[in-house]
Amino acid sequence: MSKYTEDDLREELKTKEYEYGFYTDIESETFAKGLNEDVVRAISKKKNEPEWMTEWRLEAFRVWEKMEEPDWANVKYPKPNFQEIAYYSAPKKKPKLNSLDEVDPDLLETFKKLGISLDEQKKLANVAVDIVMDSVSVATTFKETLAEKGIIFMPISEAIQEHPELVKKYLGTVVPTTDNFYAALNSAVFSDGSFCYIPKGVRCPMELSTYFRINEGGTGQFERTLVVADKGSYVSYLEGCTAPQRDENQLHAAVVELIAMDDAEIKYSTVQNWFPGDANGKGGVFNFVTKRGLCETNAKISWTQVETGSAVTWKYPSCVLKGNNSVGEFYSIAVTNNYQQADTGTKMIHLGKNTKSTIISKGISAGKSQNSYRGLVQINSRAENARNFSQCDSLLMGNECGAHTFPYIEVKNKSAQVEHEATTSKIGEDQLFYCNQRGIDTEKAIALIVNGFSKEVLNKLPMEFAVEAQKLLEISLEGSVG
Amino acid sequence: MTEERIMELKEKIVSSYVAFENEMDINSDIHDIRSEAFHNFEKLGFPTKKLEAWKYTSLNNVLKNDYSIFANKDNTVEFADVKKYFIHDIDTYKIVFIDGKYSSFLSDTTHDGKDICLLSAAFSKSKYKVVVENYFNKIAKQDNMTSLNTAFANEGAYIYIPRNVEVEKPIQIINFTTGSEAATMVQPRNLIVVEQNAHVQIIERHQSLTENAVLTNAVTEIFAAKDATVDYYKIQNDDDNASLVDNTYIEQKSNSVVSVHTFSFGGNITRNNLNFYQRGEHIDSILKGITIIEGKQHVDHHTLVHHIEPNCESHQDYKGIYNERSTGVFNGKVIVEKEAQKTNAYQQNNNVLISDKATINAKPQLEIFADDVKCSHGCTIGQLDDDALFYMQQRGIPKKEGKALLMYAFANTVLESVKIPEVKQRITKLIATKLGVNIGFDL
Amino acid sequence: MLKIKNLHASIEDKEILKGINLEVKAGEVHAIMGPNGAGKSTMASVIAGKEEYEVTEGIIELSGEDISELAPEERAHNGVFLSFQYPVEIPGVSVTNFIKTAINETRKAKGLEDMPAKDMLKMIREKSELLEIDRKFLSRSLNEGFSGGEKKRNEIFQMAMLEPKLAILDETDSGLDIDALRIVANGVNKLKSKDNAVIVITHYQRLLDYIVPDFVHVLHDGKIVKTGDASLALELEEKGYDWIKNELV
């Protein structure tokens, strides 16, 4: 792997094909490729984990070995060779730091390039950030401020050491190790991620944020996020993802578990911008993610995602509405361009009475990409008075891409009210002419119309993220209409 | 246990096929098609819930029966006993089968300027050879149940309408099963070719006359040439022990209009596979259905509209009312190929559950590869409007009748496009019966 | 300001404009009248540069510069404003956001910085008051669910914001009740100056009671067949278009 020079970088940024495609030259410690029980043990040992954790991983590994990679999604890709991936990669100078001044300057430079200047964010946005680079958490800011409120926000590897009782109690309760192929793999090999606990009745005073980045080549990223909002608490959580440009495909198989106890609310926002591969479909991240939240009585979980990256996306952030009166929401924008493929959507499982769910999905396909919405709304027989509203809109740009909608609706209770609507449209010639007439050029007009199309979802994002997401939409679609 | 019995049934089918083949003229052109289909079925077996297409419908309970594959004797029925199953208040052509065999007594066919007769005749007579060669099994899928039908394809309706012919009265295709066996399997096969600018109306019904188990696995291929118009009505109100897998394939050429209305009010398990392929421009495909079921009945509408060429339309409207422990499935797929610009595809599926034990599973799908199209689907599951009900009660309409009125109004959008008044009346009456009221719905 | 010479334009090989000659000077108001299908809206679209129309002959000059090869947005940057007969809907894009983008893009084309937010807000406030537009209206999606009157008022609001050299009002009066018509016309009159010009395309004389034209042109079958002063509009109203048609025969 030849290193990028500054000139390369400048050139790359100029072409704007993938704005975050640089490789940080930080010395890393990477395990040899391949996966077996010894590797799982070694990861666990490396992280100095207690015995129960090692066993938990091994159990997941044994299940995973017997599983087959799913192929029902509407995506086509060469199946990764799971023995050709290094399952652990960490910056060698492991920074366990209290202040950012101590962080490796190269790393700080990386964050600057990512557009997350930690200093500034600290001051302006009041966001606490945990950064996971190649699966290892490298910086958590604002830890002390949060600690005053009793909020725990730290790398999950530390949480396993410092709060084993909490991790043990909740890890794998929403997404069991046996849930699916990628979840099992993640359970066996995850090296880090974020852990967050909001105590009873506490309203988290700032947005919590994790930034994920795959840096090292030939590695997979397997992070694990666990957010527990105790009774009556509130937290808004942001997650951003980038990866450098590489020719080979990189694997990202994450698991996110959310637990919203009685009267609690979790808002989880993602801006996903993994490297999507180049204009010819070469390289790019395979993004196979399992995200699920559990709502107890009166609880609410809201997923918002803006997906512009990855070569292949397989992702269905879901809500299990177990408690009465609980609410699940899913707001999504998925943009695919060039040869990207996305199969994404949500599952809303209504178990409790008076449960409510809303699904707003906006798919934008351009280039030769395929964009699928796949969703399940399930109203179980005891879920009296359940309500669901789903809206899936697709926007097609050009004539070589595809937009697909696969909603599954399963209703076993007569008091249910379920509404599903889907539309497909294109950007109208008359809309473009109207914008042109008012002095707005076509490229800008498309950005404007796409933004309008996506507005219901963009509005759900926290301010700082919304701006970034809007920019991403524009960049992702640049040059998609001739 | 169930699996073993299904295996036994499959074996029985295999041995029956050998016997069947022996009876048939081995030199027949059809032989190769049957033989290939048979091997296909042998390989695929019966569908299971593991197949995405059968995710919500299991045939296991139906396939447990020890079906006789061929009726072992010619059974007859009296017209008086079955008159009620016909649309009898108007003159029609009739092609009637009893236990899979043609009943000349109940039928009224013609060769006068058009052919409304039997597939077995078309297979055996040289004057039909060209049509059979050009159309038979050309659009039927190679899936499990269609292959099984094709393997045994021999009898059913054969309808050929030449250019510019408007058939003056509707055609009824009725399949009776008498239950002379403990369990009967019938596999009607219909071939319908409607040439340029021709026009035909067809009413189809499958009817079991006893409580013995029946499994009908029907395949109908319909070809509508340029400017042709076909109106097809499927009336499904069978006995509780009769199950139906209906596979209908329709190919349309430019400017043709084909509508299929499916009225599902009865039967054990009813699975309607309705497939439209648009091969031409300015085509209109209309798929409509009303399902009103109760008990443990199960109705599964599985539709496909394949938009292959530009400037075409499709309209789907399915309404379902589910009582008691019944289950409804709607699986509607619209594919718009990238050449199919300016496609307008609409799909609507609305459901009402009126019992705590009823279930509805819906999977409306869009697969779109062209950008200049208007496609939408809507799917709702809800209840009757309580305010409207109260309003009616306040004006003196009893609750039961009020509910029935609301349900009728709910389903009515589908009835509006029925072009034969007698069919409309019949369906209206059936709906009233289903809803347990004795009122005329003059909305 | 605007000079059109021997303008021919066609759509899908069908000739709609068959040799238009028109000169509009700064400070003037011209009305284009004519029966349905005469080519009035086509003329407006061709001046604005709609790509479906092919200009087969002739030139369009704005302030001495030939604009007939320019993209629609470049014409807009040069000061051409078309008030659409049927303004399109753009879901999710608010009126404010849209006009902000339009103004800043135009400024960018002229090498100017974005308009400061404060100035923008002030201008929006002024112009919306001028057109009696409710502030809530400005945060709604562009033209989505607007009534006919609201759409037209929104067009004139945008005109006020963009301060064009040449405004073409294509059937701005259609679908307006008398109150809305008065508001729209007042708006136009207040925006009129010695430095800009207005072309009013209309089927009826009604609007011309409020926006008094210096010249009235009658368009028939792709050509201007008669030109006169404001009294011509009244004459047309009285005698109908058949009068012109008969006169031509």
From TrEMBL, chain A:
Transmembrane segments: none annotated. InterPro entries: Fe-S_cluster_assembly_SufBD, SUF_FeS_clus_asmbl_SufB, SUF_FeS_clus_asmbl_SufBD_core, SUF_FeS_clus_asmbl_SufBD_sf, SufBD_N. Residues 48-204 form the SUF system FeS cluster assembly SufBD N-terminal domain. Residues 212-453 form the SUF system FeS cluster assembly SufBD core domain. GO terms for biological process: iron-sulfur cluster assembly. SUPFAM superfamilies: Stabilizer of iron transporter SufD. Belongs to the iron-sulfur cluster assembly SufBD family. NCBIfam families: PRK11814.1 (NF008773), sufB (TIGR01980). This is Iron-regulated ABC transporter membrane component SufB. It comes from Tenacibaculum adriaticum. The lineage of its organism: Bacteria, Pseudomonadati, Bacteroidota, Flavobacteriia, Flavobacteriales.
TrEMBL record, chain B:
Belongs to the iron-sulfur cluster assembly SufBD family. It comes from the Bacteria. SUPFAM superfamilies: Stabilizer of iron transporter SufD. Residues 29-173 form the SUF system FeS cluster assembly SufBD N-terminal domain. One of its GO terms (biological process) is iron-sulfur cluster assembly. Pfam families: SUFBD_core, SufBD_N. This is Iron-regulated ABC transporter permease protein SufD. Residues 181-410 form the SUF system FeS cluster assembly SufBD core domain.
TrEMBL record, chain C:
SUPFAM superfamilies: P-loop containing nucleoside triphosphate hydrolases. Keywords: ATP-binding, Nucleotide-binding. The keyword ATP-binding applies. CDD domains: ABC_FeS_Assembly. GO terms for molecular function: ATP binding; ATP hydrolysis activity. The keyword Acetylation does not apply. Residues 2-246 form the ABC transporter domain. InterPro entries: AAA+_ATPase, ABC_transporter-like_ATP-bd, FeS-cluster_ATPase_SufC, P-loop_NTPase. Belongs to the ABC transporter superfamily. Ycf16 family. PANTHER family: ABC TRANSPORTER I FAMILY MEMBER 6, CHLOROPLASTIC. This is Fe-S cluster assembly ATP-binding protein. It comes from Tenacibaculum adriaticum.
